[in-house]
Amino acid sequence: MVNPSASSVTARRQVIISKILSAGHTVEVATTNRRGHATKLALDAAHGGCEVVVCLGGDGTLNELANGLVGTECALAALPGGSTNVFARAIGLPDEPTDAALVIDAALAAGSIHRAGVGSVNGRYFLFHVGIGWDAALVAEVERHSEWKRYAGHPLFIYAGLRTFFLGYDRRHPHFRIVFADGTTVPDAYFTVCMNLDPYTFVGNRPFHLSPAATLDRGLSAISVRSMAAAPFLRLMYDALRDDAGVRSSRTVDVRTDVASLRIEAFGTVPHQVDGDYVGETDVLEIAHHPAALRVVLPAVPHHG
Predict the structure, then answer these.
(1) Which of 32, 39, 219, 283 meets the CB 3.0–4.6 Å disulfide criterion with 68?
(2) Domain spans of the chain, in order of start
């Protein structure tokens, strides 16, 4: 399954990857051409008896495919075709698509297909995280300059993050409250990230760890920021980038692990993004974990570095 518009996808790479995978498998190439198209193609593939769908595209295309494959016996394999490729890199694939194709081919030969948990937000599944608040406003800013993603990459995200923090998001008032399944609450959240898989993202080659407890065989991690005063917030971001242990609970940060479900109740409306795809604003978000809901091809020997 190819998204030809993804930033790392070229015609030459498509040909090389097809040759790698077709050496030992029957391969049919399909191309996405609009938002939501990948989900339909994935459903067709699963119902047509396809064993594995291999995605050459970014995290957005991968998310659409996952939404078509959850609950089926058809497995999902990721190849890094986008600008950041959070999921592919988080499961241990190299960031070069043809190298990753060799790893996936070896994983298929070894039968390295595992059942993975996924999250959902208002009925849409996510593979690695959903962001509510500032994080989503940042993604919206990036998407306003989507034509730069192929060339600017990480500098665009840094620019969007700083612009959103200082000019595009209310940092004076809490935006929502959170109610967890056990009845506990966070009454005054500015933004929250619910993670199904760590790291949250990558800055260059450096993983940005928020909660290493977020793995494909555990519940969600929820990291909620309760103050966006500039100095402590920027220090928090710096520490998260520097420290592989992730973010710790404090007076201004609430960290929960192995979360089964939670509800976001906005004071008005709040923006949210799913696996790096901006969805829009709403007043209520129902978030849940679904154990072992998706078959995923994982590297037999994860790549590091």
Answers:
(1) 39
(2) 11-117, 125-290
Q: Show Cβ contacts of residue 128 under 8 Å, excluding neighbours closer than 6 positions.
A: 59, 86, 87, 90, 195, 196, 197, 200, 275
Which class is 11-117 in CATH?
Answer: alpha beta
Cβ neighbourhood burial of 289 (10 Å; 0-12, 13-18, 19+): buried
Can you give the pTM of this predicted structure?
A: 0.91
CA distance 29 to 51: 14
Q: What is the CATH number of domain 125-290?
A: 2.60.200.40
pLDDT at 244: 85
Write the pLDDT tens digit of every residue in 171-187: 889 999 999 999 999 99
Let me know: does 119 contact 289? Beta carbons within 8 Å: yes
